[in-house]
TrEMBL record:
This is Uncharacterized protein. Residues 142-236 form the NGO1945-like C-terminal domain. InterPro entries: DUF2063, DUF2063_N_sf, NGO1945-like_C. Residues 5-90 form the Putative DNA-binding domain. Pfam families: DUF2063, NGO1945_C. Gene3D superfamilies: 3.90.930.50, DUF2063. The lineage of its organism: Bacteria, Pseudomonadati, Pseudomonadota, Gammaproteobacteria, Chromatiales. It comes from Rheinheimera nanhaiensis E407-8.
């Protein structure tokens, strides 16, 4: 057997112990490799998705991670990349089983988003805006924020609370604060639309954002809408989530 064939058989057996071992390697040595590689991947996945893991019996969780380990090609040992690969596996390749929670994909995405923001590196320093600057300068939403929406209250899910049916969509603004802690704010759909407009069109002024929002709430006059939008953005500015628009940064491909 050629070296490459031995190497392929070695990797295949480590990922799936039901496949034959490569010739010439002792069982006890292979057992060490199998346990080491799988435990490392399982540890990474369990650390990235602690709430999801807590909802499964240990044997069932190990079987889920093993299925990921067998079928998904991780090309990077970096912790965050393994977590992202696991999320993609659940979204694209995994066939949910009867014992899986109905909110599996939503909770997994939410936990990945928390990890993503906790580890994200900015290409350059952001300049937070003070509330008094909202009417004076072009606005931008910090890159340390994410707008999320799920048909389950993912922030409440635990082993004691597991909703069995989708309900009203929950909108979140997930963010990393000045102390590098990942937090969230529950927001209503109108606030989500306001922030989404800003995210899609960084550099907008407050008046431009209000004008774009007006067709969604024709029952509100412009003064009321402006007052409400100003109050919302002032609150987010106080949290450090509104930053000075950097035209050079936002023009990068």
């Amino acid at each position: 057997m050629h070296f490459q064939q031995v190497q392929q058989a070695f990797v295949a057996h480590i990922k799936n112990p039901e496949l034959p071992m490569p010739e010439g390697i002792a069982e006890d040595r292979m057992a060490v490799y199998r346990e080491l590689f799988f435990n490392n991947v399982q540890g990474f996945v369990s650390s990235a998705f602690p709430v999801l893991k807590s909802l499964y019996p240990q044997v069932r969780w190990q079987a889920l991670v093993r299925q990921f380990f067998i079928h998904f090609a991780c090309t990077s040992p970096y912790f965050l990349h393994i977590a992202e690969h696991f999320l993609h596996f659940l979204q694209q390749d995994y066939q949910p089983q009867a014992e899986d929670p109905p909110f599996l994909l939503d909770l997994a995405h939410y936990e990945w988003a928390e990890l993503y923001l906790a580890t994200k590196q900015l290409p350059q320093q952001e300049q937070p805006l003070a509330a008094a600057q909202l009417t004076e300068v072009p606005l931008a939403l910090s890159e340390l924020t994410m707008l999320l929406a799920y048909p389950y209250p993912v922030h409440q899910i635990s082993s004691e609370f597991q909703p069995q049916a989708a309900g009203e969509v929950q909108c979140y603004l997930l963010y990393r604060n000045r102390d590098d802690e990942v937090k969230f704010v529950l927001i209503n759909p109108l606030t989500a639309a306001l922030l989404n407009n800003l995210q899609q069109a960084p550099g907008s002024s407050l008046m431009q954002l209000v004008k774009a929002l007006a067709p969604l709430v024709p029952q509100l006059d412009s003064d009321t809408l402006l007052s409400g939008a100003s109050a919302i953005l002032q609150d987010f500015a106080a949290k450090g989530l509104l930053v000075s628009f950097q035209a050079e940064q936002n023009s990068l491909p």
